[in-house]
Write a structure and sequence with these properties.
By secondary structure, this protein is α/β, with parallel strands linked by helices. It has one domain (2-196): 3-Layer(aba) Sandwich (Rossmann fold). Helix content is 36%, strand content 18%. The protein has helices spanning 12-15, 29-44, 56-69, 92-102, 120-132, 147-158; strands spanning 2-7, 49-53, 73-76, 141-145, 175-181, 184-192. The protein has a six-stranded mixed β-sheet with strand order 3-2-4-1-5-6, with helices on both faces. Helix 2 (29-44) runs parallel beside helix 3 and helix 5 (120-132) crosses helix 6 (147-158). The chain starts with a strand and ends in a 5-residue tail after the last strand.
Length: 197
Amino acid sequence: MRLYLVRHGRTDYNVNHLAQGHLDVPLDEVGQDQAIRLAQFFVKNPVQRILSSDSQRSMHTASLASAALSVHIESTSLLRERSLGELEGVPLPTLVKAWDEACRNGESRFTVKPKGAESAYEVMDRISGLVDDLHLEKRSIAIFTHGMTKEVILCRLLGAPVETSRSFRFDNASITELRWAQDVWVLERFNDTSHLA
């Protein structure tokens, strides 16, 4: 059984370095082309199940693979990006500054919730039930989601603490592939964008 973790295609917010969170931002022209190339990848590497965040940037990215494979998309809010509260739409340096200020009293970057944002631990709690059951699946699966959510999912799959998520970074429309083998997830491909060339 293979599992493909896919970050959504590019948006204007990605280009302009703006925080998206739960904002329902569409793909830009490049992101739409990336979705086409992802569909071509999955025609060559078919899956039998597709899960997606219910945000339009993820759903649009997943939709072309879904159509090419005739596999229904199971959309869920559990796979959404981290909510950023009042910080959604701000420039990324402003977001980083808010997190830095929230940590000044010694609280962890992974537990603080500046301006109503969701903590990394809350994202882990949100996705844990869905992720923990994936190894029971016999079919190959593609999960279309977001950068930070993908980081936390990978931590959960590999049995790593949520703090490890800061070690991972994922490009738009990248594929990370894992294989279930002898009771562990084996990481076989990380942040691969070769299908976009």
